[in-house]
Task: inverse folding
């Protein structure tokens, strides 16, 4: 009985010693594998991290990833977008408005200095946007083309019996700066600041007489708040809420060389756009 107890005691000491040695060895081997295996910033809960790392080490004695695991992880990890170009396409929904529409005619006795019976108009806007950009550190720069809706504006020159119909349409070309304010593993929040030019094409018709068209270019400025969410590797979903001032709009109608009516207005757009960004 004593011999049996003695052998049991010896086996227990041997087992305990082996466990301590194994733990010490494992502590050296089962270190964080991120610096060796991860080629960039680490999103949580991927291979080589947390409980998966510890479990794998307990089974295999190593934190090294298999080739299959490396491929799986590489497919999930957002690729670094620094110093790379990207393409953004989006659809928008919002409101397009004409504000402060006024009569600016200077040399027609019938209409000069007479106010219009209305001074604003608006329409729902559902259009598309496309941009080519470049990432640099914590910001990105882009050139963006925005298609615009047409706005009808019909009114009268107060007390003169002169009525008119008008329309404005066009597009904007803007340079944008996106400043990242929060960056996480899978998404980035940013502030959008943009400046550029808008081409406004107007049509003005008085009392069902011939139409007159005029093209004008207005300075454009916009401000917005957006977010980009990684979908897969280099593909992101993008959402942007913003307002854009689209410049001054000019209208003109004349008989011969004499203006019968000149007008100006200010054009703005505000709303949201949702699209995709591809980093290449």
Result:
């Amino acid at each position: 009985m004593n011999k049996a107890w003695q052998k049991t005691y010896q086996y227990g000491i041997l087992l305990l010693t082996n466990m301590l040695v194994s733990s010490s060895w494992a502590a050296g081997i089962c270190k964080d594998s991120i610096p060796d295996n991860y080629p960039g910033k680490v999103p949580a809960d991927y291979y080589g991290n947390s409980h998966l790392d510890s479990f794998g080490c307990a089974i295999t004695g190593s934190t090294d990833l298999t080739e299959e695991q490396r491929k799986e992880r590489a497919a999930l990890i957002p690729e670094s977008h620094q110093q790379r170009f990207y393409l953004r396409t989006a659809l928008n929904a919002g409101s397009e408005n004409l504000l402060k529409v006024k009569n600016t005619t200077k040399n027609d006795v019938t209409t000069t200095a007479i106010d219009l019976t209305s001074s604003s108009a608006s329409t729902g806007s559902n259009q598309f946007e496309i941009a080519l950009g470049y990432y640099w550190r914590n910001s990105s720069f882009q050139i963006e083309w925005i298609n615009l809706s047409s706005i009808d504006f019909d009114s009268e020159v107060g007390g003169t019996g002169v009525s008119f119909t008008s329309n404005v349409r066009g597009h904007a070309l803007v340079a944008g700066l996106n400043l990242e304010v929060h960056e996480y593993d899978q998404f980035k929040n940013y502030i959008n600041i943009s400046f550029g030019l808008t081409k406004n094409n107007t049509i003005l018709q008085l009392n069902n007489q011939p139409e007159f068209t005029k093209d004008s270019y207005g300075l454009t400025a916009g401000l917005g708040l957006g977010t980009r969410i990684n979908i897969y590797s280099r593909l992101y979903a993008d959402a942007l809420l913003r307002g854009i001032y689209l410049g001054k709009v000019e209208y003109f109608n004349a008989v011969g060389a004499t203006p019968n009516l000149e007008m100006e207005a200010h054009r703005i757009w505000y709303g949201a756009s949702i699209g995709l960004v591809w980093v290449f």
Q: What stands out?
A: The chain has two domains: 2-76, 85-279.
